[in-house]
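Bumping with the actual sequence this time:
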Amino acid sequence: MNHEVVPVFIMGAPRSGTTLLASLIASHPNIVALPEMHYIFDLMDIEFRSGVISLEKKISILKDDFHFCSMKLFDNLDKLRAFLEYRDSKEIILDIIKLYNDRYLEKEYRLWVEHTPHSHRSIEAIKYYFPSAVFISSVRDPRAVIASTIKEPWGFKDVVTGAQSWNSDVSNITDKKDIYDIHIIRYEDLVVHVEDQLRGICEKLGVLYSDEMMNNDGVVVQDYFGRQRSSQGNEVDKNANAKWKNELTKKMIGHINAVCVGLMEKYGYVSDCEYVREIKGIEKRMYTLIGRLKQRHMNIKFKNEVRELFCHQNYRQ
């Protein structure tokens, strides 16, 4: 089955609805999704560039990745080592999917969905290893993305970095759209017209739409992603689109509009009458410095906690 499976890579700026979209799609009885597979891009990128990846490097990548460790596929480091020893990157990825499905889902799957937002950065390697891969991008209003990301323990904490990050991610995806046939949808359209959007995606994927897709339970989200987990299995929140208006200051909104205006106009997020004012000079440097110091502290604390919870129990050397 593994070599017949079609991979679907969902990408976008973080907090753009990639997990929601994956959960809806993978609620289909013939589609499977795992927790975000950040580690597969390290595996593919290294092997793609150098032609080989050492066993010790493969072990290092997986045993320190809490997304991988949280699935609890191996009891100890020796079993992980034996699994990795004679497999290349593609075989590792496909066999991890099979192991996860056999243990938790038991689906007869034809497609598998990967929903790490930054997968667009590794799209050349993905296409090399998986020529039949389908690419879908979820684009969301940067003001909503930034308002949401600031709340996350792993996310940036200043509007300057947030606007730059959204602009970079969406620009990269937009530039690659025609080259890699990336199907782009707006998060705002997805949450309002869920079934219509899913039917269009099914047509793209070559599968029949299933009413089960509306269950929104195709991705198991671990407890450490509390806000994402709270929406698992629930009806899609159609009111999510406007929450940022009460969460960002006028200055924040003006800066986002100024930095992201080109792509916002392209995707229908801004009009000429909206407030636009870029934060500059010393004020910009202060925003960035304070935000990045806070992000660094919270990000390190978050990763250490979840690694201790999932990784160190089974894979401590």
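The tokens above came from a reply further down the thread. The beta strands are 6-11, 31-33, 111-114, 134-139, 183-186.
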